[in-house]
Design brief:
Strand 4 (113-119) and strand 5 (123-131) form a beta hairpin. It is built from 10 helices and 7 strands. The longest helix has 47 residues, at 249-295. Helix 1 (2-20) packs antiparallel against helix 2 and helix 3 (37-53) runs parallel beside helix 8 (189-221). It has a 5-stranded mixed β-sheet with strand order 4-5-7-3-6. It has a domain at 79-243. It has helices spanning 2-20, 27-34, 37-53, 56-59, 96-109, 135-142, 159-185, 189-221, 234-245, 249-295, and strands at residues 63-65, 71-73, 83-93, 113-119, 123-131, 147-157, 222-231. It is 61% helix and 17% strand. The protein has 310 residues and is an alpha+beta fold. The radius of gyration is 46 Å and the shape is elongated. It starts with a helix and ends in a 15-residue tail after the last helix.
Length: 310
Amino acid sequence: MKRQTVVAYAVAGAVVALAGCGTEPDSDAAAADSLTPQESAAVDRAEYEDADAQDDSAAVDDEAPDATGVLTQVTSETFDREIIYTIGVDIATEDVQEASRQAASLAHDAGGYVADESTSAERSTVRLRVPADQHADVVGELQQLGTVLDRSRSTEDVTQDVVDTQSRISSQRESISRIRALLDEAGDLSDVIDIEAELASREADLDALLSRQARLADLTAMATINATFTLSDPDTSDEDEGEQAASGFVAGLSNGWNAFGDGAAVALTGLGAALPFLAFGALVGTPLAVWARRRRPAPPFQAPLSPPAA
């Protein structure tokens, strides 16, 4: 009973000190130490959810007092910009499979890798992941593999997300440390159960934040290049250019001969297609014509007219 009375006085004293010295840097920690395990866990949880509800600009304060009370600038400008690069390029080439192999080699030489690949006889699509600071060089070398048909580039600045995630990870780790300290001091079984449940929830939140941090780190460290190679036919284009350039008597004679050959081929094709029908008509029509001729009655006999008398 005496020990409980001392604890009660200590809690009351901590509350009074917190109300009178709200601007002291260590007042929050002193108040947390004087609360019961359940109350401390509830306060930490509320603080974290409140921080999670704030917008990105509030995640990193523009002006934050340090331990000496001096205002210091803590903005995203303090950090290097974190950019996600995504590039798309469509290239026409004479050998899509060879172009895909060279693209993979370029990615490996730059310290990257092939994330995905789909290749057919006339088309190949590869997704390359290369270091962000080398993506421009890799794209420039890819363009040398053929004729560029299309190119796109998009960027996304996630600096604020990176800073916000790091800040929340630090806060969550501190919160977990406080809860573990409360767990060591807990005596009742019900308190232990409640604190362990809260600790498990905080650790799950921390794991989610760490996963998000790793994802952002991967997206900003490695640029994504989506390269599509399509088959081009230089022989056909050369022939078309040659036909357009040809002119004069020889060109006319050649075109006329080609037209005559095409016409003769069409006529012979039609004759070959009609010949079976003509043969069938001859086999069936000839007997019918003979039979019809025999069935026709003979014309009546007429005596020759005698010449008139003189």
